[in-house]
Amino acid sequence: MTRYAHITGWGHAVPDQVLTNDDLARRVDTSDEWIRSRTGIRERRIAAPGEYTSTLATRAAAEALRMAGVHPRDVDLIIVATNTPDYIFPATAALVQDALGASKAGAFDLQAACTGFVYALTIAADMIKAGGIHTALVIGAETLSRIVDWEDRNTCVLFGDGAGAFVLEAAEEPGGVITSVLRADGSGAELLMLPTCGTRHPVSPKALEERLQYLRMNGREVFRFATRVMNSATREVVAKAGLSLEDIHWIAPHQANRRIIEAAAKALKRPLDDFLLNLDRYGNTSTASIPLVIYEAAQEGRIQPGQYGVLVAFGAGLIWGATLVQWTGPRPARKPPRMAWHRRVAQVGSWMRRVRRQVEGLLAR
Ligand code: ACO
User: Fold this and answer.
1) Residue 73 DSSP label
2) Of the residues 119, 143, 223, which should be mutated to test ligand 1's pocket, given the most ligand atoms within 8 Å of the CB?
3) 254 annotated active-site
4) What separation, in Å, do the N-terminal and C-terminal C-alpha atoms of the chain show?
């Protein structure tokens, strides 16, 4: 029996606090006009004190589970893709597991920069297809506002906080997560990194003085890399699935910069309307950006069951990748759950006792 991994629920969480471009222009030497024309971003959400990557992830996951009609107890695996975990360890996924009461779930974090959600989705789907698990929660969650240098106008205007989550379930009906391409080129590691807090440059007064605890980026080089791989990864994943670009109904790109997405649309010879966009309201939320934009599109009915979509992302590492999905809708047609063998034996036993009683009753007359 071939197993498929269907996306049967989706959820989101964004902080209430909105930070507009005008708000930023009061902090650093920038303007609404510069940010909008260079990036397409108008505003972003910022986590409140007491709001963490794990709390945003938990809210998004709870909504996705409700939509799928799955009890947390029935989740086999939780993957949290994030660049801003609550701690280096324990895993944020373990905190989410506890908050949800997912008592039978394994849990781990996945770090593949902004491509993390695509990687996590691929791993969870492949585990479902291989038969190892039945139900998985895949979450992208970030509080990037905590690692952004609010004195650096080159980066602080780009990022925002949020979370998105998918429930994946095994089913026999074709569809769901079809295939992926995952790529990396570590020779570009220095183009985008958070230098300290890891073990190569542990936190020290000197590191803090040099502001190494904040994200650093060579924007121009990342831009060049991003426009190249958005095109190549999309083409590769479509070809790998045995489809052509004309078969694809929508593309959910990583929401980093509108100009990068426009360049991808041009290279792929597709109208910009085919690309799901919400970066104007949330900025770059890294691993959360793809599930967030798909969440909104699904809620608005913009994406429909049966349609083919491509999720494509790039980020630090350098790491990039794309996943091709056939959208399912809230739930796939389900077969009734198979009864455990001891229940079936008990049911047959009670049926035989009933027949025996009836036969004995007839013979006694
Ligand atoms: N406001 C005003 N001026 C600014 C700002 C700002 N916020 N930021 C930079 N500038 C200035 C620069 O200092 C520079 O001035 P100079 O010419 O006097 O030196 C000028 O604007 C142009 O700078 P560029 O870097 O050439 O601007 P560019 O058009 O490339 O846009 C941007 C910069 C938006 C960062 C762009 O390069 C970009 O989007 N790169 C990709 C970034 C990205 O996607 N990162 C996320 C990757 S995913 C992940 O893993 C987190």
Assistant:
1) G
2) 223
3) yes
4) 51
As a whole number, mean pLDDT of residues 152-172 equals 97
Nearest CA-CA partner of 139 in 154, 120, 125? 120
Q: Is the CB of 226 under 6 A from ligand 1?
A: yes
What was the pLDDT predicted at 209? 92
Q: Residue by residue, what is the 3-state secondary structure of 195-263? A: CCCCCCCCCCHHHHHCCCCCCEECHHHHHHHHHHHHHHHHHHHHHHCCCCHHHCCEEEECCCCHHHHHH
Domain ranges (residues) in the chain? 4-326
pLDDT of residue 333: 42
CA of 156 relative to ligand 1 center, distance in Å: 10
Work out the mean pLDDT of the chain and round it to a whole number: 93
Band (241; pLDDT cuts 50, 70, 90): very high
Is domain 4-326 annotated with CATH 3.40.47.10? yes
Tell me, what's the pLDDT at 1? 81
Catalytic residue among 83, 114, 134, 257: 114
Atom 26 (ligand 1): residue with closest C-alpha?
A: 220
Share of the chain above pLDDT 90, in %: 89
